[in-house]
Structure to design on (562 residues):
């Protein structure tokens, strides 16, 4: 019983206990880590439908600006702006990407890479939504504990939700679209509608991150479309192991704190960080989670030989 | 060989009218014209590269025709998206069998079972798709309670993969089934197992189009054949008569 229960309990206990024991600086790191974990899961989900995205920053930025505008222009309270920003952001991203749903592989990736960069320039050039200064003075969370536990619980819901979703028939059809979309079409399924639904789910996950961070920073501006939000989640998912969601979580919880811990090193920080990335990829190309999972399954067959 | 089941309406189930398609300089399908009655089994034969698979792709919407029309039950379905055509009840198998390899065999059938068409036909209530899938696999000759049903589709032998393709058509509850080289690569023993399944489908009143190179087996069950060569129809009619035509002999055996 314990053998089955321990793995899912680890992230639950971890995310609920960590805020209590960490010093306040590392609490901020925990928030950033959780954000990247969510973005990585959103990337992982899209890639299991065969849509390789380089634009988690698009989801993040659109979500951030949605909730920021709702707060700034309409003065809505935080517990409305975040959910509304999430759904609105997800819907907007889906609509934006609808025309390119037919594209596959690298072509889809290119479009998603370009869109956030484009939005950044649009905000800069047209000075809408606060222009280069952004929208400031937004409402914050009532206190740090709410802030920490909101994100912790969302990460857990996303982790178990995504894993459950992929094991349903809906998830099975999504995975089949990645493997052989012609075969799915000949099965009478509208793959574009399915892809749009997947995009909405991933978009909402990303937009939530943006909406949440807007209220943590009490500010939304052009950095919301930064390339970091696209690349780091991808790295987390690849290092942690693709297609499992737990791997994305693990990847983010290794890479982001590592990057923080290396701050003491000084100038060579990026070099060491890059080297450790290379080591992970070369040593465990399947991903850390797949490796750990395999080793854990081997424990089941451990027999004591006297 | 039994005669096709006659229904009250003599209107054709499927009619292909002057279908034409070129890929660059290759004229793959030239003005192909034929009709198909309910309950009929039509064989489409022809040498390699004669445009048989392209014709299937045109009918099922995977390739858009340059000109011409496809009518199904009197409805013009030319240029429809493949999933909409499949939703009407036109199922097809692929020549290259590419199952979802890491899934168990029966899970491969979840995809057609998940389609709006099947949901609608089962009255909005759809129970356990897994058990429906297992029943379907038994229908195409996966032994009941054997482990084959649960094996990863990627590890199945070729004969079973072909049956799995056939089961996908059944899962969609198709009225018109298009089988693209179902018999290719099967041993005589495997064929002996799969032929009765097709005969059973005919008894059930399904309309079937078979693209085939295994003529001996095809002629045992086909009501009518269409012969293609370089995209043109060069012969049509009763299997035995068609092979007597000089033009067909030339296409198959070459000229002196």
């Amino acid at each position: 019983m314990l053998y089955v229960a321990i793995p899912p309990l680890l992230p639950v206990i971890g995310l609920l206990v960590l805020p209590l024991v960490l010093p306040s600086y590392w609490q901020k790191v925990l928030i950033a880590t959780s954000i990247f974990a969510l973005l990585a899961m959103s990337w992982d989900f899209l890639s299991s439908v065969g849509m390789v995205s380089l634009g988690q920053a698009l989801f993040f930025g659109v979500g951030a600006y949605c909730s920021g505008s709702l707060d700034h222009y309409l003065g809505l309270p935080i517990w409305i702006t975040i959910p509304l920003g999430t759904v609105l952001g997800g819907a907007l991203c889906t609509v934006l990407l609808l025309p390119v749903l037919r594209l596959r592989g690298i072509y889809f990736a290119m479009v998603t890479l370009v869109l956030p960069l484009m939005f950044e320039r649009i905000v800069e050039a047209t000075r809408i939504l606060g222009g280069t200064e952004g929208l400031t003075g937004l409402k914050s969370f009532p206190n740090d504990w709410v802030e920490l536990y909101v994100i912790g619980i969302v990460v857990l819901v996303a982790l178990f939700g995504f894993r459950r979703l992929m094991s349903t028939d809906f998830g099975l059809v999504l995975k089949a679209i990645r493997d052989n979309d012609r075969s799915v079409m000949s099965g009478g399924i509208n793959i574009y509608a399915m892809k749009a639904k997947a995009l909405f789910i991933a978009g909402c996950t990303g937009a939530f991150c943006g909406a949440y961070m807007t209220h943590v920073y009490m500010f939304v501006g052009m950095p919301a479309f930064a390339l970091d939000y696209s690349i780091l989640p991808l790295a987390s998912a690849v290092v942690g192991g693709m297609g499992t969601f737990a791997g994305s979580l693990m990847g983010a919880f290794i890479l982001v704190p590592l990057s923080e811990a290396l701050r003491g090193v000084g100038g060579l920080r990026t070099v060491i960080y890059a080297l450790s990335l290379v080591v992970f990829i070369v040593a465990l190309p399947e991903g850390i989670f797949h490796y750990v999972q395999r080793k854990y399954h081997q424990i089941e067959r451990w027999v004591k030989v006297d | 060989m039994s005669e096709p089941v006659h229904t009250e309406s003599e209107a054709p189930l499927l009619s292909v009218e002057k279908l034409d398609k070129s890929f660059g300089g290759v004229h793959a399908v030239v003005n192909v014209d034929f009709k198909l009655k309910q309950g009929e089994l039509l064989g489409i034969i022809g040498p390699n590269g004669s445009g048989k698979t392209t014709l299937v792709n045109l009918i099922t919407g995977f390739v858009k025709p340059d000109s011409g029309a496809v009518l199904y039950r009197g409805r013009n379905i030319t240029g429809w998206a493949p999933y909409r055509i499949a939703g009407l009840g036109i199922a097809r198998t692929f020549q290259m069998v590419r199952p979802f390899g890491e899934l168990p065999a029966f899970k491969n059938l979840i995809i057609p079972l998940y389609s709006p068409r099947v949901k609608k036909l089962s009255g909005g209530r759809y129970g356990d798709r897994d058990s429906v899938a297992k029943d379907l696999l038994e229908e195409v000759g996966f032994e009941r309670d054997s482990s084959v049903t649960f094996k990863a589709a990627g590890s199945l032998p070729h004969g079973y993969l072909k049956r799995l393709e056939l089961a996908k058509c059944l899962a969609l509850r198709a009225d018109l089934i298009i089988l693209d080289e179902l018999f290719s690569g099967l041993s005589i023993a495997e064929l002996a197992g799969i032929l009765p399944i097709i005969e059973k489908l005919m008894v059930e009143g399904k309309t079937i189009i078979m693209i085939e190179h295994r003529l001996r087996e095809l002629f045992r069950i086909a009501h009518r054949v269409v012969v293609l060569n370089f995209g043109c129809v060069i012969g049509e009619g009763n299997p035995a008569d068609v092979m007597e035509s000089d033009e067909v002999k030339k296409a198959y055996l070459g000229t002196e």
